[in-house]
């Protein structure tokens, strides 16, 4: 079955703010096909100054609290970077990419479909590790 890769209209470099970046990450996460039992919170982490761009780092932390376990045993983080070019026209959209905790693979919105299994795998692996310790 073919799946539509969802994305949002990302803001332009000249209208970017840290808060707007956070809002857009929230809007993008809302397009993911994940079960409603997943809860998350997100935050701005830091600004990084590079020669030709500025990068803004964010984290979204996911878990599935239940009535029996309102405090989850483990969480899964997704790290976002919004990059603002210093050399490209400011009217272009920001560059956005994200990685999952424990993975170095870089994903770009609009180029891959987010999989709920990625979050489940991170949490399952953490629980297995905790049980071994």
* Tally of contiguous helical segments: 2
Task: Give the N-terminus to C-terminus distance in angstroms.
Answer: 41 Å
Radius of gyration: 16 Å
Q: Uncertain spans, ≥5 residues at pLDDT below 50? A: none
Percent helix range: 10-25%
Order of helices and strands: HEEEEH
Strand order of the largest sheet: 1-2-3-4
Q: What structural class do helix, strand and pairing data support?
A: alpha+beta
Major sheet description: 4 strands, antiparallel
> Globular, elongated, flat, extended or rod-shaped: what is the shape?
elongated
Organism: Caloenas nicobarica
InterPro entries: AKAP, AKAP_28
Protein name: AKA14 protein
GO molecular function, one term: protein kinase A regulatory subunit binding
Notes on the protein architecture:
One of its GO terms (molecular function) is protein kinase A regulatory subunit binding. This is AKA14 protein. InterPro entries: AKAP, AKAP_28. This protein is α+β, with helices and mostly antiparallel strands and 133 residues long. The chain has 2 helices and 4 strands. The mean pLDDT is 95.
């Amino acid at each position: 079955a073919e799946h539509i890769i969802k994305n949002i209209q990302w803001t332009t470099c000249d209208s970017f703010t840290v808060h707007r970046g956070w809002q857009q990450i929230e809007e993008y996460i809302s397009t993911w096909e994940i079960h409603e039992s997943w809860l998350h919170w997100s935050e701005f982490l830091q600004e990084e100054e590079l020669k030709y761009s500025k990068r803004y780092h964010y984290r979204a932390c996911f878990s599935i609290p239940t009535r029996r376990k309102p405090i989850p045993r483990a969480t899964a983080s997704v790290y976002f970077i919004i990059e603002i070019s210093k050399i490209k026209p400011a009217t272009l959209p920001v560059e956005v990419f994200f990685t999952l905790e424990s993975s170095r693979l870089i994903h770009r919105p609009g180029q891959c479909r987010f999989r709920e299994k990625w979050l489940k795998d991170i949490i399952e692996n953490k629980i297995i590790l905790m049980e071994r310790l």
